[in-house]
Amino acid sequence: MGRVFRQAALGRAIPRRGILRDTADVARRIFRRGFKEAQVEICIGENALSLITDRDGYFDAHIPIEHDLPIDVSWHRADILVRAEGHPPMRTSAEVYVPPPEADLLVISDIDDTVMFTGVAEKLKMLYRLFVRKPHRRTAFPGVASLYQSLYRGKSDKAERPILYVSRGPWAIYEMLETFFQLNRIPVGPILFLREWGISWRKPWPRKAEDHKRALIDRMLTLYDDMPCVLIGDSGQHDPEVYTEVVKAYPGRIKAVYIRRVDKDPKRQEAIQRLRDELTGSDCDLILAADSVLMAEHAYEQGRISARGLEAVKRDVREHRKEEAEEASL
Questions:
Q1: CA distance 25 to 45
Q2: Mean pLDDT of the 272-280 span
Q3: Cystine design at 34: which of 56, 154, 183, 287 (Cβ 3.0–4.6 Å)?
């Protein structure tokens, strides 16, 4: 997936650093204009495809692999040529993930309040954290990096499983998320699934997308139709409800649902417990976890991560708690 877009340039009057620069960067990302009907040519090895962008400038490429790719690597370079009316041809490249034969599990994870703290229950603060806060100042939950690394590498520590990230956030924050993942050593998924908010001066509010997350999960389960799956989310929004529906819709496919507890509302915990009861007798455990350690312990017991991976999660959470205690004593 990709997008051809144009955005306003920053004038010389805007300083290179400071709140004015940050505000200008945010505005540029939000009000990017997609370039419709641009021609995009993609080549992966000797495999090629040509297509046209949609009204928002996006393209969704399904490239048939008629010429074999190397099987000893999971990430392959895609060369991209863009031709847009009134502009010279533009070239770029991207990395495309193809699961290796050892991949035995699909991991689908939410981002907001699952991987990093955004506070989705507090809308204004969430928008600030999404758009304004720099990647190095965003907060990853303790143990997330080591947990996702262990899930990525599997019991053998060599699996290189597909990890897909699903969010209702806008594509405008893609660059910040990518940098955040790299800074925190969180495995970068093959696709960071976001959506087009459709914000403009005339329509300042995002387009509705109630079924966005479920539709993407369905699409990925269809794409990786021969793999069992683990779903990871949080208790703050509708992840438990959506994931329970997915478990019922795909009997035997979903092996575990990990829900990070981000609130202490007893009614919410009771609601999640009822969902857990609904899954009794299925081949799926719903785990409501206060931290990454409980998720890792369950994954280890089920043979999905290695002992080394479990210990890494415990160590990272332990060190984080120690740092918190030292800061509190100052």
A1: 35
A2: 94
A3: 56
Q: How far apart are alpha carbons 151 and 104 in whole angstroms? A: 11
Q: Using CA atoms, how far apart are residues 195 and 173, in angstroms rounded to an integer?
A: 10
Could you report the per-residue pLDDT of 105-129, keeping only the tens digit for each?
Answer: 999 998 877 886 655 444 444 444 4
Report, at the CATH architecture level, how domain 106-329 is classified: 3-Layer(aba) Sandwich (3.40)
pLDDT at residue number 227: 94
pLDDT for residue 255: 96
- Full 3-state SS string of the chain: CEECEECCCCCCCCCCCCHHHHHHHHHHHHCCEECCCCEEEEEECCEEEEEECCCCCEECCCCCCCCCCCCCCCEEEEEEEEECCCCCCEEEEEEEECCCCCCCCEEEEECECCCECCCCCCHHHHHHHHHCCCHHHCCECCCHHHHHHHHHHCCCCCCCCCEEEEEEEEHHHHHHHHHHHHHCCCCCCCCEEEECCCCCCCCCCCCCCCCHHHHHHHHHHHHCCCCCEEEEEECCCCHHHHHHHHHHHCCCCEEEEEEECCCCCHHHHHHHHHHHHHCCCCCCEEEEECCHHHHHHHHHHCCCCCHHHHHHHHHHHHHHHHHHHHHHHC
Distance between CA 123 and CA 113 in Å, rounded? 13
The model's confidence at residue 314, banded by pLDDT at 50, 70 and 90, is very high
- Does residue 229 surpass a pLDDT of 70? yes
- DSSP β-bridge partners for residue 5: 34
More confident call, 228 vs 175: 228
